[in-house]
Every structure is written in structure tokens, then in C-alpha cells.
Amino acid sequence: MDMIKQRILAVIMVLFMVSPVAVLADDNPFEKGENVNVGNNEWLIKDKTATRSGSSDGDFYHLFFDRKQLRLRITAGAEDSEISAREYQNLAIEDMQVDGKRLPLFQWCLVNQQKQSRFLQRGLKVKQNVCDNQGEKGTFVLRLNAATLDALKNAKTLTFKIRPFRTSINVNFDISDFQDMVAKLSTKVNVVQKPEVPAPVVVPDKIVAVKKCKANPPRDFIKIKAMEYACNDAGAKAEAEASVEAAVVKERKHQEKVAAERERKRKEAEQAAAAKLAKELADKKAAEDKLAAEQAALAATEASKLEMNADITNKMLAVCQKKWASGEHRCYCEKFLEHAPAGIQSDPSCAAK
Which of 18, 79, 85, 106 could form an S-S bond across to 138 if both were Cys, CB 3.0 to 4.6 Å? Predict the structure, then answer.
């Protein structure tokens, strides 16, 4: 009995230790693995549709096909129903690949989604509803075209890269028997009723070139390049316009700096020219003043010399007149002889002295 009690106690302790961890792992969505692989399970064919399902960590993944569209639905139970669908407020469909390569039709959906083209966002519309992210119903729908259907028929793996929470998950479906399934589905349709003529679905078989728009700078800023962006991407438009505006502000500051430097040099040149002219005028006036002073000095000297000569002449003439009055003549009076009275003759001997 003691041995049995010990074993029962040990089992109870193990349950207490393990149970909380299991509950936490199931309830915490961030602990889910990054890859979910749905193998080659049987297709459930019903009412002209086919569904392949698989599960991981308490979530069930259903791939639905009805010849017109593919639908991925994530549910809390094994049944592919909207009632048991998971609800994701921020479900992102990041990629859709066939054998590791992105489907061209998915790329077209990204380009033709409102506002942004990085991933398919819940609540954003895609042109013609080719792609539809219904995160509130745990569902993603892709309307098929001929090219995509052919790609699926020849593929081995179909991958949905989704981000229901913070971590991306790759949901990999084995579709190596997709063509056989389509053949069975077509046979079932033929047996049950006449084949319907499907309504034309306006979905491009080829990727349509993204229409580009440009954020242009003002006309005065021809050196700034225009920024291209996808015309239907409001976020890209805002980024392009902000980039151009930043370049304009930078260029405007550069132009203002260049203009200020040019104005500074112009003023310096004007000041230098004015200073040079003032110096030239001052030098010219100084030269003129100097010349005038020299001429005045020469004139004064000449006047003084004349005055002195006149004074000497007057004094010598007075002396000579005294000599002439006494009847004498001296050689120093020879040059004043024109003032001598009659009878006074030039002395030839004065010339030899």
C-alpha cells in the first residue's frame, strides 16, 4: 500500500509541474514555431470544392479551392468554418510563394493595395478585390487567374507567410497532387451536373507595370532631382514629397549662403575701389601741392634775387655817381656806364681785368 501511495503522489506532483507549462504554451501565441507544415493529407472534396487541412500548436490551417479562388482559413477547431475561425486584429499577409518563389499575382496585389505595398494589411483594399485579408475572420482569399492556376498545378509546395502577432509564420502546404485534385474536382462536377460557364474574372495574368508619379521640386531648383513613387501609395508619396522638400530647404540655405558670400565680396570690392580712388586723389593733391610749393619757393627766390640785385645796383650806382661827379671812372662802374653823365667814357682797360 505504501508503494502504491508513493506512486500516486509522484504522478500528482508531475501533473502539477507539467500542466501550467502546457497551458502557457497553448495560450501564448508568441511561442508558436516559425514553420507549419501541412503534409499530403487527403483533400476533402465536396460541392465542387476541395479542402486540405492540418494543425499545429492548437491552430488548424485549411487550404480551400473552388476553381475560382484559394482561401486560407485559421480556426480553433478541426472544422473549416467561420464560426470557429480565429480573430486577428492585425493579421499581415507578408508573402505567398510557390516552391520558394513569390507568386506574380500576389506581387500585383501588393502594388495595387491602398496606402502601402510592403504586405497585405487587414482593412486595406486591393484593386478589384483580387486579394482580401479578412483578419477578423482568420481568412485570406486570393482570386485566381489562368497563370496562377497553371503554376499551382505544377508546384510541390504552396507557402503563406503570415504574421498574426509579432512573429511571422510560414504555413507550408504540400500541393504536389494539386493537378490530380483539380482533375478529380472537374470529374465530380461533370458527374453531378453540367459544368458551369464561369463568369469572367478580371484578374491580370501578367503583372501590370506600376504607374509612377513624381514629386517635383519648384522651378527655381532645377538641380534637385524629382522623386518617383507608386501613384497609389500614399505613404510613398508623402516620403517622396518630404525628401524633395528637405532637399529644397537644404539647397535654399546653400543659395542664401552663396548669395551672402557674393554680397560680402561685392562690398569688399567696392570698399577697396573707393579706398584706392581716395588714395589716388590724395596722392594727386599732394603732388599738386608739392609742385605749387616748389614753384612758389622758386618765385620767392627769384623775387628775392631781383630785389637783392636791385638793391646792389642802387647802392653801386650811388657810389659810381659820386665818382663820376668828381670826373673819375672805376671799372666796377663799367656796367652802370649807361647811367653816367656826359663826358664819362668807358675804360678799355676794364675789359682785361
Answer: 85
